[in-house]
Amino acid sequence: MVFEVLTIFPAIIEAYLSESIMRRAVERGALRVDVYNIRDFTTDRHRQVDDYPYGGGAGMVLKPEPVFNAIEHIERDGLERRRVLLTPGGRVFSQSIAEEYARQERRILLIAGRYEGIDERIRTVTDEELSIGDYVLTGGELPALVIIDAVTRLLPGVLGDSRSAEEESFTTGLLDHPHYTRPVEFRGMRVPEVLLGGNHRLIRRWRRREALRRTLRQRPDLLDKADLSEEDQELLEEIKEEEE
Ligand code: ADE
């Protein structure tokens, strides 16, 4: 997967990609990220990327010329790519969008806006606008990284164990079950007995029950959309009685 990021702060993007799983994904060739500094595509003496808003008001607006220049430069290769603008007004990013990108896209151009806004004409060269949630950040760099991270971990060979990405929250429609590691007792809190025995059927059932319990407590809205078996429904009824 190739991501291209247009930003005025390339170092923010590069810092995150130089550590941990993203770094390994790059080294393994599963991920490539080409970062472009919007300032390099200005044509004026002061390399100005922003300007005052027409009509007045506070804050600066990202200029259209350097963004258009950068896109035209990148697209000289003639390759297909999805152009995505990061903005709090976009469609809200989710695990299912991450899955769709990981499955269907080869090349995604992410445009990170900054300042109070971007010149409206930039919108005419994008395919899609994405938000990472209903809050306002100072720029699109963190959203770009969120999207790169969420998509990359779904690519083949990026996570050590291919089940890790599939079994967890949101992919199964439920929150994750609790996890424990050593020691068996920590400050008076014990690891549930069932996990210490080797009965895998019982362990699976316990995990499912606890995933259902956690989802019911913390995100009951997810239960409406989750794919629940008859056994799940029974477990859920038991949990509801216990919780009362
Ligand atoms: N830019 C500023 N806030 C944002 C958000 N929540 N999502 C995407 N881009 C943004």
What does this structure look like?
By secondary structure, the protein is an alpha/beta fold. It folds into 2 domains: 2-152, Alpha/beta knot (3-Layer(aba) Sandwich); 167-243, tRNA(m1g37)methyltransferase, domain 2 (Trp Operon Repressor, Chain A, Orthogonal Bundle), CATH 1.10.1270. 39% of the residues lie in helices and 18% in strands. The protein is built from 9 helices and 10 strands. The chain has helices at 10-17, 20-27, 64-74, 95-104, 141-152, 162-167, 200-218, 220-225, 230-243; strands at residues 2-7, 32-37, 50-51, 61-62, 82-92, 107-112, 117-118, 128-131, 185-186, 189-190. The protein has a 5-stranded parallel beta sheet with strand order 2-1-6-5-8, with helices on both faces. Strands 3-4-7 form a 3-stranded mixed beta sheet, with no helix packed on it. Helix 4 (95-104) packs across helix 5 (141-152) and helix 7 crosses helix 9 (230-243). The longest helix has 19 residues, at 200-218. It is elongated. The mean pLDDT is 95. Bound molecules: adenine.
Per the principal axes of the C-alpha atoms, what is the gross shape? elongated
Give the ligands present: adenine
User: Might you state the CATH topology name of the largest domain?
Assistant: Alpha/beta knot
Relevant CATH superfamily of the largest domain: SPOUT methyltransferase, trefoil knot domain
CATH architecture descriptor of the largest domain: 3-Layer(aba) Sandwich
Structural class category: alpha/beta
Share of residues in helices: 25-40%
CATH class of the largest domain: Alpha Beta
Q: Main beta sheet: strand number and arrangement?
A: 5 strands, parallel
Oligomer: single chain
Quantity of strands, as a count? 10
Number of helices: 9
The helix/strand series, from N terminus to C terminus, equals: EHHEEEHEHEEEHHEEHHH
Count of individual domains: 2
As residue ranges, the low-confidence spans are none
In whole angstroms, the N-to-C terminal distance is 48 Å
Strand order of the largest sheet: 2-1-6-5-8
- The chain-level mean pLDDT equals 95
Content of β-strand: 15-25%
Radius of gyration: 23 Å
